[in-house]
Amino acid sequence: MIIRALHIENLFQYQGVSLTDLPAAGYILLTGGNESGKSTIIAALTLALFGRTATLRADQLGKAVRWGEARGSVTVEFLADNGEAYTIARDIERDGTCQARLQRAGKELHAGVAEVDQAMFALTGLTFELFTATLYLPQGGAEKAIPATILHTLAGNDRLQGAAWQLAAEEAVQQERLRQQQEAIEALQAEWIAPDALAQAMAQLQTEYQTVEAGIKAVAQQQQHRLLLTDAMQQAAVTVNNVLERLLRCDRDSTLQAWLERSKAVEQAVQELLDTGRQAAAAIEEMPGHPLRAAMETLRKRLHRLMLIVEEVANQRYQLALWLGEIPAAPGATDTLRQQRKPLLETLEQENTRRWFFRVWNGFGLLLVLLFCGLLALVLQQGEGSLQQAVQSLFRLVYPAWQEQMLLPALAAGVLSGLLLTVIGWRGLRGVGRQRTASEAALQALAEQAERYKERIQQLDGAASQPLPQQVNTLLALAEGAPWQEILHRWAEEDGADLLHENGLARFISGLQEQQATFQRRLAEYLAEQEAKQLAGERQQQAYRVQLEQLTVAMDQQRQQQQQDQQRRQQVAALQKEQQAEQHQLAVHQLAHTLLLGSCRESTARFHQELRRSVAHAVPLFTQGRYHHVRIDEQLQMAAFSTIKNDFIGDEEISGAVRQQLHLALRMALNQALLTRIGEGPHCLILDEPFTHFDHQRLRAAWESLSQMNPSLAQLWIIVQGCEEAMAATANVKVSCAADQPFLTVRGGH
After folding, report:
1. Using CA atoms, how far apart are residues 584 and 171, in angstroms rounded to an integer?
2. Rounded to whole angstroms, how far apart are CA atoms 455 and 478?
3. Residue 172 — φ and ψ, nearest 5°?
4. Which of 90, 53, 84, 48 is nearest to 72 (CA)?
5. CA angle 77, 739, 725 (to 5 degrees)
6. Closest among 148, 156, 150, 146 to 602, alpha carbons compared
7. What are 117-135's pLDDT values in tens digits?
8. Are 734 and 23 in contact (CB under 8 A)?
9. What residues contact 385, with CB distance under 8 A and at least 6 apart?
10. Lowest mean pLDDT, pick from 522-526, 562-566, 638-642
11. Which of 310, 410, 519, 656 is spaced 20 to 30 A from 427 at the CA atom?
12. In Å, how far are 23, 41, 90 from 17, measured between CA atoms?
């Protein structure tokens, strides 16, 4: 990560800072006295990148806003490892509220503190802690201890170490679970009961229960059968009473169709009652349905014989309607009114044609008589005049051999011919008139016959809708000459005598009412008997239920004991199975824990070995060759080999300047390990007052060595109070800070 620009507004002591066009490689030197704002610029830089500083946590950012201002902001433009330029900006309110944005090429990629922080970690691979331990050395921080988590991260075994810690915690939990499972198994095994006694007692109770249950089922079936039968017979009896009441309402105003339908309905209802009664155990012959059904069957047969006569009458009516053409006739039928009228109408049409012909013939004859008579009279009156000459010329044109002496005979012959034609036409007209009169008489006869047939059809139709007595009387009046006349008279005297006369009808209805009363009485007796049986069955069922409840309670108790014992055995089996699985899982975890710890130790050892090589390379550069060999333990405690004492000496025996130089070498080795982990760069390195105790020679040596130690550390930010002009001359950008300077603007390369 390379910093290209930094803009600060109203943060810390600055009202405005603008560092632009910063070089991608080389020194950026920040100089100034105490409290001049050098470290403040770096604090603002870390605030922009990570949302906090070395002294302010994320929940204390309101303190960074300049005194007297409501808000502040910081913006950093940087090049990421992928070579693309990004801009990150953070706006901070006095109350600590913070807004963050991440942009690329002027387009906003992410917004919000959490989302921007996640994006920055994904983009750089750095956290604030990792950054301050490797690429940023705060003022006085060279000798501060490095957290173990950072070391694990740099060594690449942070995930392995975390997994090992998690496995260790899980192993302790599994050990506790195994102990609890063993205690639960022992407690359940102590409560086991021998199953033989429980099984025998349960079998005896089940046998008694099945016996009582079978008794209840048998009684319930009888009750249900009796109840269904009783309901069915009651419904059938209601139906019989209803249809019988409708039949009893028949009187002298009821039609034959009404008598037939109602008697048939009574017969069917009684038959249904008898069919239902056949399912009962009682003798069905005691029910009154048989006499009632026999009476209805007899009545229906009597009415059916009359219906046959009515159907014969209907057939006669059909034949009359067929002859009249009210009903379409079969193709080729010749006995209908239309077929009989057809030849008469054709003859009448022919006679009309002949009459017209004879009238023309008669008129033509009269015209000839008048014409020749007039010519003859004129010729005789004028003698040899001009008229005679004209007539002679006309005849000569018609007949070239005409002679004058032929005129009078010709005129006389013309008169005779006209008279002959007139006589023939007159005689023909008389013959045609006689024939027309005969045809018209025949048509009139057919019309009169049709009127008679229509009247008879109306009479027959009216009889069909009349009450039974009137219908029979009407049919008797119309039966003259009919083939069913004798049958109808015999029915009226025998079968229909009690239906046609008021006294006979009253006796018939009275007999039906007596049968209905007997039927209802017998039905009430039968239903009362069934109700008594039903009550007895209910009492027996109740006794069975009490016994069944007692057996159910005893069986439930036995079953509960069996279930409890079975549950204990199942729980023991399940606990033993879980115990085996837990032991296997514990063994797996222990093996995994051992392997992870071994991997961590190997990774840590490899990391420390590489770290020692890096420190050994950097120490001679910073100590001007005074120290070459350094020993580093796992807590990064260092000891340098002293040629004077011919032994390794620790921090308590080394001067402050040498100690600072050794720790600076360690930090350079750590950022080398970081770059190996996150990418070779280019990256920036920020050192805040790294040469405080260095003498002149070692300062110059360290200054020259920084740019040579790691090519990936291209951009070096160095904060010092002051330096030699030769050293300052090598800086690519020099930023001079002053305590009374609220605005600072520096442009790289200018």
Report:
1. 12
2. 11
3. -65, -40
4. 90
5. 75
6. 156
7. 999 888 888 888 878 877 7
8. no
9. none
10. 638-642
11. 410
12. 17, 8, 15
Distance CA 311, CA 635 (A): 127
pLDDT band for position 281 (50/70/90)?
Answer: very low
- Please, which residues have CB within 8 angstroms of residue 342's CB and are 6 or more apart in sequence? none
Mean pLDDT, the chain, integer: 77
Q: Which residues pair with 5 in a beta bridge?
A: 77
Distance between CA atoms of 305 and 437, rounded to whole angstroms?
49
Among candidate residues 125, 51, 121, 127, the one with its CA nearest the CA of residue 90: 51
Q: Work out the number of other CB atoms within 10 angstroms of the CB of residue 271.
A: 16
The pair of structure tokens assigned to 682 is 């280019």
User: Residue 37 is encoded by which pair of tokens?
Assistant: 């704002």
- Work out the angle at residue 354's Cα, subtended by the Cα atoms of residues 351 and 358, and round it to the nearest 5 degrees: 135
pLDDT digits (tens, 9 = 90+) for 183-239: 888 787 777 666 666 677 778 878 888 888 888 888 888 878 778 777 877 787 787
For 111, the token pair is 């917004």
455 CB-near residues (< 8 Å, 6+ apart): none
The torsion angles phi and psi of 744, rounded to 5 degrees, stand at -145, 125
Q: How far is CA 29 from CA 41, 96, 704, 713, in A?
A: 12, 31, 14, 15
What order of strands is seen across the sheet that includes strand 107-111? Answer: 107-111, 98-104, 85-93, 71-79, 2-11, 14-20, 743-747
If you ran DSSP here, which 8-state letter would residue 284 be given? G
CA distance 111 to 102: 6
Contact predicate 34/50, CB 8 Å:
no
Distance CA 288, CA 505 (A): 22
Identify which of 6, 71, 81 has the alpha carbon closest to the alpha carbon of residue 40.
6
Distance in angstroms (rounded) separating the CA atoms of residues 150 and 457: 123
Long-range pairs for 173-178: beta carbons < 8 A, 24 or more residues apart: 174/582, 174/585, 174/586, 174/589, 175/586, 177/582, 178/579, 178/582, 178/583, 178/586
Residue 84: both structure tokens together = 């693309």
CA 148: distance to chain centroid?
58
Instruction: Report yes or no: 13 and 737 within 8 Å, Cβ to Cβ.
Output: no
Query: Three-class SS of residue 157?
Result: coil
How would you class 477 by CB atoms within 10 Å of its CB: exposed for 0-12, middle for 13-18, buried for 19 or more? Answer: exposed
> How many angstroms separate the CA atoms of 301 and 315, rounded?
21
Strand partners, 716: 27, 685
Q: Which of 27, 20, 10, 16 is nearest to 87 (CA)?
A: 20
Give the predicted TM-score (pTM) of the model.
0.45
Strands 14-20 and 2-11, bridge-based pairing: antiparallel
* Closest by CA position to 184, among listed 560, 582, 559: 582
- Burial code (b: 16+ CB inside 10 Å, e: under 16) for 39-65 equals bbbbbbbbbbbbbbbeebeeeebbebb
- Residue 505, H or E segment: helix 502-622
Cα–Cα–Cα angle for 198, 204, 209, rounded to 5 degrees: 120
290 vs 302: CA distance, rounded Å:
18
Q: What separation in angstroms does the CA of 197 have from each of 202, 203, 204, 211, 409? A: 9, 10, 11, 22, 162
